[in-house]
Specification:
Elements (H helix, E strand, L loop, with lengths): L9 H8 L12 E2 L6 E2 L6 H24 L1
């Protein structure tokens, strides 16, 4: 197993750990298309699920109606 040749000082260790590349990004927020409320991205809510289900049902009805007319 690899072992270090010299001890790394606390200062060097902390500079590596807390460098600017490791900082956390601020929390991002978006607005909901349905309710215009601020939400976290990729969040599933009851309103979005019900809107999705309703839109799928409407698309299926339209496809069936188009298929019957042809």
């Amino acid at each position: 197993m690899a072992t270090p040749k010299k001890k790394i000082s606390r200062s060097r260790r902390n500079m590596r750990r807390f460098a600017s590349g490791n900082k956390l990004l601020p929390v991002t927020w978006t607005t909901s298309a349905l309710t215009q409320d601020p939400i976290r991205p990729h969040t599933v809510t009851l309103e979005t699920v019900s809107a999705y289900v309703a839109s799928r049902a409407n698309k299926k009805k339209a496809a069936r109606a188009a298929q019957k007319t042809t």
